[in-house]
Amino acid sequence: MELPSLSAIGAQAVSGLTTAMLLFLVASGLSLIFGVLRLLNFAHGSFYMLGAYFAWQFNTWLQGSFWLSVLLAAIATGVLGALLERVLFRKFYDRPELMQLLFTYSIVLMVSDVVKYIWGTQQLGVRRPEILSHTFQFGELALPSYNLMIIVISLVIAVGIWLLLQGTRLGKTVRAAAFDREMLSMLGVDVRMLYLLVFSAGCFLAGLAGALVAPMSAIVPGMDADIIISLFIIVVIGGLGSFWGTFLGSIIYGMVFSFGILFIPQFSLFAVALIMAVILIVKPEGLLGRENTR
Amino acid sequence: MKTLDNKRNRLLMATALFLGLGAVPFFAPPFYVVFLNDALIIACLSMSLNLLVGYTGLISFGHAAYFGLGAYACGLLMKSAGLPFGVSLVAAGALGGFGAALAGFFCVRLNRVYFSMLTLAFSLIFWAICFRWNDLTGGDQGLSGIPYPNLTWISQMLGRPDFSSAQSYYLVSLVVVAICIAAMWIIVSSPVGLILRTIRENEQRSTFIGVETRRVKLAIFIVAGTIAGLAGGLFAIFNRGVYPDFMYWTKSAEILIMALFGGIGSFWGPAIGSLTLLLLHQETLALTEYWSFALGIILLVLTLRFPSGLWGLFKRFTNTRRSK
Predict the structure, then answer these.
(1) Ramachandran category for residue B195: left, alpha or beta (phi over 0 → left; psi -120 to 50 → alpha)
(2) Which of A56, A175, A212, B319 is 20 to 30 A from B43, comparing alpha carbons?
(3) Nearest to A157 by CA among A47, A66, A250
């Protein structure tokens, strides 16, 4: 096997990091929803897909005002999530897991066809903003500025969420809800409102990631089923409900995938699934999870 | 006495059903035969999942993997190795069971959501292998052009030389499926079946009364995987091809939905669910291409209002009539 050059490795690392950070935006919402609401949400990938389609739609209406489209797409996804939480998801919090899984899967099925009905099955694309369509050149290494922007934005958001969870009263309440929600409601916290907030914030992040990915990859039906599997792998590796665990899981996933493609292309899908299985067998609570699951 | 009567009645009904289904190709048009063949195989598959979900309370989210393993085994052995159908089908069951043993050994150590996640992870591993091993499985293109086995002996034996391969093959599937269902019935109505239900109701208590729950769970996982593998082998020939989609997680979800739709609280429920959903699928496709949406609505109503499925509805209906 020919050894790849240093610049190829660098390029692969940046591409892996970009994937990782985008996935982290989505996965952190999934993990937060699981931690607080105790709901394993198969439909989380659907919100990501909706974010991408919303971004395309707003971008078309606003004739290429990229940043505004991304923001509006994320907000629209968050609002839709809030509506669905109030109308449907709420009814399933205390139901058996099988019912939860199948209910969230029914949302996946419906959203996938609604998307096909509205936007058709052909690929859609969003053009990168002018300012981010060039590449940075470091010797032989060419780094697309759009990827760097995604990494920076995601890192800022990650730190932002963490500060919010650690330093504010709201964050403390959220963490307390993950710990013992009955006690929390006895202490006079409006748990229903809190759930609504957490769920809709998770959807907002998923929509944001979907909107940001729009200029990088084709928007197609089916992106929901593929990403939800990546997300499950990530949260399982890192630890369901653990914030930094999700971060670590995303980095591992992105890097394995990216370098897997460089070295043994057939192997990367298998490798990440295998890592997921091994983690579940050895440490089912995930690398940074704490809960006892046996 | 009453239970004995009950048992005999059930056996009579099952035999009648078997004979009735066996008579179908003799008078019904081939179109129905093909549809029923599909339904039989899928019913058998969802009933095997029900051994785990309904009887033992193990929510497997990767059952399609063993179906797919069986399908690939049967398809490859018949197409590439040119082995006879009987051997290939047995190998399909064996590979399904072997895959289930491999995965189940680890899965049964985990509980609840983590069990589901690990079954999902293993199904992804098996899927990735079949999806990427181009030289063997044809990768994402799948395996097409699997030959029908030579079944002229069946049509000759029955004195119907006009039977097509599809019609004869339907009878073969019917016999294999019937054997699988009989095996499942024997398991669930034996003391082992009671132990399975005990584990579902309270795993800790079953260990208190001396049940080695892990071993029992592994055994039933392997049985379910073997039957899924056999169903996959049958389906590979029926479909004349095997594709990696057979093993993707959405297929696993589909089987789970079928089982739940019919009712996981009963033996026949999943079969009824499969048949009904396949019928609905066919009828819906004639009207609109948006089958996923229709299925989503069905599933939503089911999870919101009728968690015990069609069978539960039927029971409730007959019970209220009796009490009047």
Answers:
(1) alpha
(2) B319
(3) A250
* Residue A108 Cα distances to A45, A170, B26, angstroms: 8, 30, 42
3-state SS assignment for residue B79:
helix
Set of chain B residues whose Cβ sits within 8 Å of the Cβ of A233: 121, 124
List of residues 6+ apart from B71 with CB closer than 8 A: B92, B232, B233, B235, B236, B242, B246
H-run or E-run covering A211: helix A191-213
From B260's Cα to the closest Cα of chain A, the distance in A is: 9
**Cβ distance of B128 and A92 shorter than 8 Å:** no
Q: In chain A, what's the furthest Cα-to-Cα distance?
A: 64
State the smallest CA–CA distance between residue B247 and chain A in angstroms: 14
Report which secondary-structure segment, H or E, holds B209: none
pLDDT digits (tens, 9 = 90+) for A94-116: 888 888 888 999 999 999 999 99
Q: How large is the ipTM?
A: 0.84
Q: What are phi and psi of A141, to 5 degrees?
A: -85, 120
Mark yes or no for CB contact A92/B303 under 8 Å. Answer: yes
User: In chain A, helix, strand, coil percent, each to 5?
Assistant: 75, 5, 20
Task: Using a CB–CB cutoff of 8 Å, tell me whether B207 touches chain A.
Answer: no
pTM for this model (two decimals): 0.87
pLDDT along chain B (324 residues), means of 10: 69 86 80 89 94 91 94 89 86 94 92 87 90 77 79 76 79 92 92 88 84 89 95 91 87 90 87 90 83 89 84 79 56
Count, residues in chain A: 294
- Do B101 and B122 form a contact (C-beta atoms < 8 A)? no
Distance CA B31, CA B19 (A): 19
Which of the residues B117, B140, B201, B287 would you substitute to probe the A interface, choosing the one with the greatest number of A C-beta atoms within 10 Å?
Answer: B117
**What angle in degrees, to the nearest 10, is found between the helix axes of A268-282 and A243-263?**
140
- Residue of chain A whose alpha carbon sits nearest to that of B293: A110
Query: Is B304 an interface residue toward A (CB < 8 Å)?
Result: yes
Residue A185, sorted as left (phi over 0), alpha (psi -120 to 50) or beta, turns out to be: alpha
| CB-count exposure of residue A171 (10 Å: 0-12, 13-18, 19+) | middle
- Taking Cα atoms as reference points, which of B105, B97, B112 lies closest to residue B60? B112
Residue A143 bridge partners (DSSP): A136
- Distances from the Cα of A253 to the Cαs of A217, A236, A271, A272, B6, in angstroms? 18, 11, 9, 7, 56
Is the CB of residue B302 less than 8 Å away from at least one CB of chain A? Answer: yes
Any idea where the domains of chain A sit in the sequence? Answer: 6-282
Among candidate residues B246, B292, B65, the one with its CA nearest the CA of residue B140? B246
Alpha-carbon distance values, A291 to A27, A142, B114 (Å): 19, 43, 12
DSSP notation for B12-78: HHHHHHHHHHHHHHHHS-HHHHHHHHHHHHHHHHHHHHHIIIIII----S-THHHHHHHHHHHHHHH
Q: Which residues of A touch B (CB under 8 A)?
A: 40, 88, 91-92, 95, 97-99, 101-103, 105-110, 112-114, 116-117, 225, 229, 232-233, 236, 240, 266-267, 269-270, 273-274, 276-277, 280-281, 284, 293-294
